[in-house]
Amino acid sequence: MNYLNSDEIREKFLSFFESKGHKRLPSASLIPNDPQLLFTVAGMVPFKPIFWGKVEPTYTRVTTCQKCIRTNDIENVGRTPRHHTFFEMLGNFSFGDYFKEEAIEWAWEFLTKELNMNSEKLWVSVYETDDDAFNIWKNKINIPENKILRFGKDDNWWGPAGPTGPCGPCSEIYYDTGHVENCPDPDNCTPACDCGRFVEIWNIVFTEFYADEEGNLSPLPRKNIDTGAGFERICAVVQGKYDNFKSDLFKEIIEEIEKTFNVKFGQDKETDVSIKVIADHARAISFLISEGILPSNEGRGYVLRRLIRRAVRHGALLNAEGPFMRNILEAVIEKMGKTYPELIEKQELIKKITYIEEEKFFETLEKGVERLNKIIETLDNTKVLPGSIAFELYDTYGFPLDITKEILEEKGIMVDEDEFNQLMDTQREMARYASGSVEYDKTKSIYKEVIKRINQTEFIGYEMLESVQEVKLIVRDNNLVTEAKEGEEVELFFLKTPFYAEKGGQVADKGIIFSNLFESEVVDVQFVSEKVISHFVKIKRGNIKVGDEVTLKVDESRRKAIEKNHTATHLIHAALRKVIGNHVKQAGSYVGPERLRFDFTHFESLREDEIVEIECLVNEQIQKALPVITYIKSLDEAKNLDALALFEEKYGDTVRIIEINEFSREFCGGTHVSNTGEIGMLKIISEFSISSGVRRIEAITGIESLKYVNHLEKIVNSIATKLEVSRDNIESKIDEFMKIIKEQEKEIKKLQSQLASKEIERFLENPILVKGEKVIVAILENVDKDVHANTADVLSQKLGKGVVILFNKNNESNVSIIVKVSKELINKFNAGHIAKKIASYLGGGGGGSPIFAQAGGKEVKKLEEVVKNISNFLED
């Protein structure tokens, strides 16, 4: 029988609702403009502002096929027929247009007419008090009353998608698969039974209420319809499959997995679990990376890392010994790229990032599993793994908790998650202290009193660098005081300040606070709460009292240097995204007067030509002297702009946006130049990795760039003078010298080999006997490592059965050691043990196999003692 394929089903759905007056819209991003959600978890998420009544809809009827990610049931993926991390949701939406009757009638029409589903196999449910929906199903659709079930809030109430938001009663449509294998009472089975026979394929949500944080409901300004139809489930039902993974959506992907591991889907239960996990996760991984998400240890990046590692673990269960995902990802891209072209556009990035993460996890997976298995053997009958062990596996081997749990569940063992979470919290707290992110009001109790008296310090430093203000509070030694004297270090508080307090990577301003009778140096400026600023000062002259009027003056040249570097970080961010891709996101920064650093997400080092291109692109914008425009928008308005933001950051109701022509647009509260020409020049001085998936650029601007160029020029001139050539000929002269040096090194090595060869016969004349076997102990001096190794080989060959211990004494700084034991004697001697023992005595380390080992030591003075007592080092 010919069934509709997935592409045909998707198109039929969208076309059907277009015929009912709906506007077809493309899928929104998996990353929602919603601080409550990590991912788009349902088709209605992009429309939440409309459901809330905050935004007027452009279209009152819309239809979509929305890509979604959910990981709340990740441990069930692979073990059931219908759990997924990535899935598609078909949706038709009404924003204050049609309501229950049309939504129900069209759902039924599509399923029974367009998809030709047998109406006898369809059942429905409604919310327990929703008589309107019940009567529509009974009287309009003519469904028998016994096939209309009333369910409570757990089953037939939807939302909100997050802590607060739109919600309402819903009506679900179920398909009877006839699968009764797990049913305790097949003759009386209904959708109320959780045996899996009945599959929910359609959910019509009558969105008419708003739920606040306490769960209170209030009517929405307009009644709406939100339909969610599980695409994977509908494909399986239409194609006569009980398991979603047997529909054509997964066919090519699973065939690639079968080929990769030489397995067959459907022949072994445990193998099937791994096949389904890899197939599901390959789809999620592809879509997440296509959205610019990179593996990391928090937020969305952690979800991606967790999925890759879970796929790797199941690949290892199918006997993978190294990265295997590439061809499987290609099958995903081939299958879904026509519908979602971003997969084709980002296919190389998807494969490369996954490969790097796979390779990294494979390095530790075997050790981690080995460690866990040894621990499992020692567990008593309580069958509970201590949280400290789970934390060790996470901290040392990179095992996400869910992988540890999954391995243990297969053996009937649980994890003490409370202890694990306590240790994680402790680690996070330590990290906060290490990064200096502890709030000031938690470290100084006096700040709580300060905040009560000063609700907010207004920053006026965008417009001015000098201002006369009244001293409101003085803090000395964690106490409020009314007066401070010359020589003291105190904190001053004002209602307004031109001094920028350290925030967002930008360092604090410095300067002076003074009056006719008083002067102090401002050494630091910090927030003691989200809104109150403290000025840390050293009093140089006179006294100061609460109520005094003083002048606050920012060091202008220092501020200007900081502004150059801050605007330059925005230009670097934009240039990085243009040169190496939109997956680049800011991961931290430092903006000081003398330099800047910019941390960003990327999976490999930048090539030299990429660094040059980024540098040129930034300097191009500087040379154009583009205006740097600042404006304030509401957070909702700002999110609709193409402005870069750290959405993990907390933003208020309004945000400040920095715009540089069409080149860069970012949320930012820092200070900036008025046009890019003020930066002068930017020079990148280094680019390197600071952690997995995060890299750092260090750069300088303005006068510091000139100083740097002058310094390099001085070095170049000095080298030219020493080489007695012009600057243009330095490179060729160095190449000439390098050629001579290499030839001389070859000659030295040749002479050393000749000298060592003459010594070999002398070494062989005086072997010592240990355990009745011949042992040669000899010392070379300052020879090349290749000569050292070759001499040891020749000695060993000429000696035959025996042991060779050959030292190479490098002046008085160190000694290298080679130990060779003939195969016949490995029951008496072990080269690795001997080398390690000698090296340890000489203050070094090393080792190797029973027949060959290398080591080194630093305490050269002890070498004669080792040679004299060599038999002691050959004993077991």
TrEMBL record:
InterPro entries: aa-tRNA-synth_II/BPL/LPL (IPR045864), Ala-tRNA-lgiase_IIc (IPR002318), Ala-tRNA-ligase_IIc_anticod-bd (IPR018162), Ala-tRNA-synth_IIc_core (IPR018165), Ala-tRNA-synth_IIc_N (IPR018164), Ala-tRNA_ligase (IPR050058), Ala_tRNA_ligase_euk/bac (IPR023033), DHHA1_dom (IPR003156). Its main location: cytoplasm. Its EC number is 6.1.1.7. CDD domains: AlaRS_core. It holds the Pfam family DHHA1. It is an enzyme of class 6 (ligase). One of its GO terms (biological process) is alanyl-tRNA aminoacylation. Its cofactor is Zn(2+). One of its GO terms (molecular function) is tRNA binding. It comes from the Bacteria. One of its GO terms (cellular component) is cytosol. It is found in: Cytoplasm. The keyword Protein biosynthesis applies. Binds 1 zinc ion per subunit. It catalyses: tRNA(Ala) + L-alanine + ATP = L-alanyl-tRNA(Ala) + AMP + diphosphate. Zn(2+) binds at H566, H570, C668, H672. PANTHER family: ALANINE--TRNA LIGASE, CYTOPLASMIC, ALANYL-TRNA SYNTHETASE. HAMAP family: Ala_tRNA_synth_B. Catalyzes the attachment of alanine to tRNA(Ala) in a two-step reaction: alanine is first activated by ATP to form Ala-AMP and then transferred to the acceptor end of tRNA(Ala). Also edits incorrectly charged Ser-tRNA(Ala) and Gly-tRNA(Ala) via its editing domain. This is Alanine--tRNA ligase. It comes from Defluviitoga tunisiensis.
